[in-house]
């Protein structure tokens, strides 16, 4: 890790801490398994359905399936986005103010109840939107590959092994994750 820090300088991760968890989750589902440009195009068409700000959950629930399909969403993503909207209205998806008061584990437990929202998605929300300092997404390919590269392993580490090794980075696992992503990125350029 010391070598990665020297190589990449200070961590420049800055959380977008003004976005509501509801919006972050909808955007995350839109990006799942898609190239960033394709997801951005789908989100732009989605946003065009609702002039002004990001649509409220009620507006999303009132939108007909064919309109959401025309944006480029698959039926499974539409179901996930609607489930996020329903869980926002029921209070399972907390407001930003409430999320800031919950522990990482409480947020993970609450949000993984939602269709299409897994642990990885919640970990990205914790890191990139809530600015949580101690998140190690052991299921993330980039983090695992970065660890493999940085520690010169022949095989990809198992999530459990990475979690055990990563205990030494606590309470700064988010920063360690950032450096592991840099290691994976650098290997793509080589």
Task: Kindly describe this structure.
Helix 8 (104-111) crosses helix 9 (119-128) and helix 10 packs across helix 12 (173-189). The protein is globular. The chain has 190 residues and is an all-alpha fold. It has helices spanning 2-8, 21-31, 36-48, 57-62, 65-71, 75-90, 96-101, 104-111, 119-128, 141-150, 159-166, 173-189. The chain is 63% helix and 0% strand.
List strands and helices in order, with pairings.
Elements: H1 2-8, H2 21-31, H3 36-48, H4 57-62, H5 65-71, H6 75-90, H7 96-101, H8 104-111, H9 119-128, H10 141-150, H11 159-166, H12 173-189
Question: What tags apply to this protein structure?
Answer:
190 residues; mainly alpha; 63% helix
Q: Would you kindly provide a brief summary of this structure?
A:
By secondary structure, the chain is mainly α.
**Which structural class should the secondary elements be placed in?**
mainly alpha
- Sheet-strand content, in percent, reads under 5%
**Largest sheet, strands/sense/barrel:** none
Give the proportion of residues in helices.
55-70%
Number of helices: 12
Any idea what the shape is? globular
Q: Radius of gyration, rounded?
A: 18 Å
Distance between the termini: 19 Å
Regions with pLDDT < 50 over 5+ consecutive residues? none
Total number of strands: 0
Order of helices and strands: HHHHHHHHHHHH
Mean pLDDT: 94
